[in-house]
Amino acid sequence: MQAEAYRAYCLQSVAAAYDVVLITSEEPTWEVPYLRDCVVVSDPADQAALSAAGRQLAERHDLAGVFTWTEWYLVPVARLARRLGLPTTAPEAMQACRNKATSRALFARHGVPSAASVSVRTLGEAEAAAQRIGYPLVLKPAAHAASIGVNRADTPEQLTAAFAFADQAAGLGRESTSVLVEEYLDGPEVSVECVTYRGETSVVAVTRKTVSAPPFFEELAHCVDAADPLLDVVTPVAQAAIRALGITGGVSHVEMRLVDGRPRLVEVNGRIGGDMIGHLVHLATGVDLPRAAADIACGRAPDLTPTRSSAAAIQLLYPDTSGTLLRLGFDGASPDWLERVSFQHQVGDQLLLPADGGNMWTARIGYLITTGIDAAEAYAHAAEAYRSLTIEVAAEEEDAVAAS
Question: 67 and 49 in contact (C-beta within 8 Å)?
């Protein structure tokens, strides 16, 4: 259900232009109308299983390209493309994206503005790194995604819990189980949506982000404005970061913070951004990022011509407290600017916030997407739509409390 809510637009776009064959971990359901063929494997991140599935499909079809929008599969899919003789960025570049310690080293080598960072494995090493870098600090798994395990420590007293939180998530990593202790970049967070073809990178859009208060960095909202004045500011740094990592083709989601108005790199994700960001880009600019990714995977030049200039925003829905979801609904009107309301939980589900041991997926209730002539109007529409939501949660061992 979550995959359909967040990635159906990608599959719809690609299937409109190509015959799609899919390698997936579950029997297809909602995907079926868009597929010509499918192979189910228990874990697509397992290289042997993925390669075997790829060979099966290659025997049945004339494959033109292969790509993924799933973070965990970036390296195996690049290796699969290479083994099948299909266009791909080098697997080593995808590994550099997946391992943030490697990314930091490459950024430093190529002069890309980033954050001071030390890779550690023990609390003692984290304490030593903290003394060198100075507080406040960010601790994160070296190879994870979706802000899982990322948190902030402002004092030595907070460091122990912050390290434990990051270390627990890091233990689940495939590419690395290390924790990074990093300089806190104090400034607004944005992402830069990029398309690279034959080594040349075009910046398509900037996404402004709203994140939760410290110590966690959960993403609460995103907005894409086709006329964002930050485009000229962030473009050179995003392009330099992609060159430093060795990315030669595909769609990239480049995260950075603006410190004193100047971009500093957080990370580069070698895939379409999550949280419907690619859909926001299409609503605001007309540029189709999933189609661009498919074209590049097949060795074709993508069409990045903007066909509209407006703005689109997504408001991610969370409860105010962990507990049981008692009521959920939307009883407002459906004006043209309300593009969609989507729920990924239902009444009776347990919601667990990061502070209580959960993460963005265990706590997030859903999202709403709005449009406008510019970012201010898209945000205003989001606030208006939010007021029509009913979200009621019963906190553990407490009376029901309303989140909105």
Answer: no
Architecture of the domain spanning 313-402: 2-Layer Sandwich (3.30)
Non-local (6+) Cβ contacts of 392 within 8 A are: 325, 326, 327, 328, 400, 401, 402, 403
Structural contact between residues 366 and 345, judged by C-beta atoms closer than 8 angstroms: yes
CA atoms within 13 A on the CB side of 133: 27
> Which of left, alpha, beta for 7 (phi over 0: left; psi -120 to 50: alpha)?
alpha
Q: Where are the alpha helices (DSSP H) in 272-329?
A: 277-285, 289-297
Mean pLDDT of residues grouped by 10 in the chain (404 residues)? Answer: 87 98 96 97 95 97 97 95 97 94 95 95 94 95 76 94 87 74 95 98 97 81 98 98 98 97 96 97 98 98 98 96 95 94 95 80 92 98 96 74 42
Q: Which two tokens stand for residue 102?
A: 């490697």
* Identity of the amino acid at 219: E
Give the domain 116-183 fold.
Dna Ligase; domain 1 (3.30.1490)
